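User: I'm writing a short report section on ligand binding and want a predicted complex to refer to. Could you take this sequence and protoporphyrin IX containing FE and write out the structure as C-alpha cells? A short remark afterwards would be nice.
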Amino acid sequence: GRKRRKKWSCYPPGPVSLPFVGTMPYVNYNNPILSFEKFRKKFGNVFSLQNCWTNVVVLNGYNTVKEALVNKSEDFADRPYMPIYEHLGYGHKSEGIVLAKYGHVWKELRKFTLITLRNFGMGKKSLEERVTEEAGFLCSAISSEGGRPFDLHLLVNNAVSNVICTITYGERFEYGDETFKKLLTLFENSLNEEIGLLPELLQVVPILLRIPGLPQMIFRCQKEYIDFTEMLIEKHKETWNPAYTRDFTDAFLKEMAKGNEAEVNGFNRTNLSFVTSDLLAAGSQTTSTTLRWAFLFMLLYPEIQSKVHKEIDKVIGRNRPPTMADQANMPYTNAVIHEVQRCGDIIPMGLPHMTYRDTKLQGFFIPKGTTIITNLTSVLKDETVWKKPNEFYPEHFLNENGEFVRPEAFLPFSAGRRACLGEQLAKMELFIFFTTLMQKFTFVIPEDQPRPREDGHFAFINSPHPYQLQAVPR
Ligand code: HEM
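Assistant: Sure. The C-alpha cells for the complex follow:
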C-alpha cells in the first residue's frame, strides 16, 4: 500500500499505515465519527485511511462533500463491491439499487423505481392518501394507550414500514402482528451485525468469508430478513395477473416477463428480492428513526412543541387531517422537521461511495476505485454554516420574517447521482405523520421517568436511546 501511495503525488494525507492491517487499528468502528473528528483536526478536510489493502478517503465539511457529490457527481458515483452480501446472492446483475455498481443496470433500475413509485396510486389511492390513512391508524393506536407511559418505537416503525410494504408488496401489517414484530427486530439486529471491526475486516479481506459457515453465522439476521421478503414475493406470484399491476413487485414481474433483454438490465428474480428489500430497508428504519427523534425533541423542548401546536391550530384546525398542501403555510413546523433531520443526523457516514475514475478534489489526487466516505455529520453540523451546530434550533431554517429557508448544507439525503431515491416519499411521511400526531396529542415526559438522553446510539443509523412518553389528548 504505502509504496503505491508514494507514486501518487498529492494523495490526501492520513495516519501512517501498518503492515497488513493498514490504519484499521486507529479507527473506532463502533463510533467512526469520533475517530474521523480526530483525524480531521490533524490532517484536514480530506484525509486518507487504509483498510488492509483498500484505499479509503474521508470527505469532511460542506464544501468538500458538495464538490464531490454535486460538482463531480459522476467521478464519485460508484459503490464499493460488498463481498459480505454474496452469501445472500448479491453479485453480477443482482446488486439491488443501494449497493449496485454505477452503470447501466443501476441506471435502469433507479429510473424504473422512481417512475413506479411516482405512478403508484394511479387509479387507486394516491401515495398521500395512503400515508394519511396510516397516520390515522397510528393515532388510534396511540389513543388506545390511554395516556399511560409507553415507548412508541414499535408502533411508529410498524406504521412507517406499512407505507413502503403496501407500495412494494401490497401488504400492511396490523400493529402488534407477531411476524412483523419479528421482522423489525431482525432488521435492527442485522444493522448491528454489519458494524464493528469484524464486518469491516471481512469486507476488505473477503477470503475469510470462504471459511465454511462463517457468513451464515455472523449474518444470521440478514439472511432471515431476506427470507421474509422472499416469502412475500412468492405469495405474490401465486396471485399474479399480468393485466393488473397491484404494486411494485407486480410492476417488476411484468418487466421480468419481457425476457432476455430485461434480464440483462437487472430485471431478474434474485434482483427482485434485492431491490424490494432495499426499498424496505432504506425506506422504513430511516423515516421511523427520524420520527422518534422528532417526538424526543418535542419532549425535551416543550416551548417548541407548543409553537408547533399553535401553528397547526391556526392553519389546519383540530378537525380535518393535514395535507401536503398545508406545508407551504406552515414555516415553523416545516423548520422543526428540518431541524429534527439535521440534529438527528441519522446516517452520519452516509453510504460508502467509490471513485468511478481518477479525479481531483480540493487539490488532492484520488485514484479510480478508492472507497469514499462522506462524513454527513460534518456537513449537518458544519460550524462554518450553522449558527448553533450542536443545538436543537429550528431558527436555522427561518429567516428574520419567519419564512422557511433551506440552507444548502442541509444534506441528510446526501446529494448528486446517488442521492436518496426516496426523498420525496420520506418528506411526505415526515410531514403527514408528525403533524397528524401533533394535531391530536401533547407529548410529555412521564413523571417517574428521567429526562431522555439527547445523544444517539450508533449502529450505521444514529438512533435515540429508548425513551418513554405520555401522549395526552389535546
Ligand atoms: C440512499 C437518506 C428515506 C430509498 C440514501 C442515502 C442517504 C439516504 C443518506 C445515501 C445517498 C448516497 O449514497 O450518497 C435517507 C433518509 C431518509 C430516507 C434520511 C428518511 C428520513 C428513504 C425512503 C426510501 C429510500 C423512504 C424508499 C423509497 C433509498 C434508496 C437509496 C437511498 C433506494 C440508494 C440510492 C442509490 O444508491 O442510487 N438515503 N433516506 N430512502 N435511499 Fe434514502
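A remark for your report: The mean pLDDT is 91. The pocket of protoporphyrin IX containing FE is lined by residues 97-98, 110, 278-279, 282-283, 286-287, 290, 346-347, 350-351, 412-414, 418-422, 425-426 (CB under 6 Å).
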